[in-house]
Design goal:
single chain, alpha+beta, five-stranded antiparallel beta sheet, four-stranded antiparallel beta sheet, 11 strands
């Protein structure tokens, strides 16, 4: 009887975990063309999770908000809780995403993958600021490059002028939140600060 009760409780907890899965929508804008935006999310039970941008071509996001077209050409990178990269996408392509009304290009992202229960995070960047290596700690291609210098501001891969706004959905997860990622310049300053502190300690000794 005890084992049956335990099995029933486990089944109930799994059903509750999957039943509470939801869709989360975020909007914002970059300051610099090499910025990176990070989102943390939790998967309660093994399921298919979708990551979707809206701002290149515009449209209506999962929250029902109307998103304007004209945003930068987005790419995404997906990581597990340890920072190991498990997926990346540049363009979802037609007909998976809509074509931009001006450029006629289908360059939003729409990445779907099966994930086990656990914690994950995803980043969005402007093309072609891809993640380096296989871990988040490896950084991104244009870390440390002077602001608004790697693509001369916000332009897509075809050199068409865009703007800095983004819109991003995380679908079929239990929770999601937007977090701050230090800009490359900030990371450099942090590094210099640590170096200076260590040097000062050596002088004191």
């Amino acid at each position: 009887m005890k084992f049956k009760t335990l099995a029933a409780l486990c089944a109930l907890s799994l059903s509750i975990g999957s039943a509470s899965a939801n869709n989360f929508s975020f909007t914002g804008g970059f300051v610099n063309d090499n910025d990176v935006q990070k989102f943390n999310f939790t998967v309660g039970a093994a399921s298919a999770v979708s990551l979707r941008s809206w701002s290149y071509a515009g449209g209506t996001n999962a929250a029902g908000a109307s998103i304007a077209r004209g945003g930068f050409d987005p790419i995404l990178a997906l990581f597990d809780a340890s920072g190991l990269r498990i997926g990346e996408q540049d363009d979802a392509g037609c007909p998976n995403v809509a074509a931009d009304a001006v450029t006629n290009r289908c360059w939003d992202t729409f990445y779907t993958t099966n994930l086990a229960a656990g914690n994950y995070f995803v980043t969005i960047q402007q093309y072609a600021n891809f993640s380096n290596g296989t871990t988040f700690a490896d950084g991104f291609r244009y870390d440390g490059v002077a602001n608004n210098n790697f693509r001369n501001g916000f332009v897509d891969a075809a050199r068409d002028t865009r703007d800095a706004h983004w819109a991003f959905d995380i679908l079929n997860v239990n929770s999601a939140n937007q977090s701050d990622v230090p800009e490359p310049a900030s990371l450099a300053l942090i590094g210099l600060g640590i170096f200076g502190f260590a040097a000062a300690r050596r002088r004191q000794k």
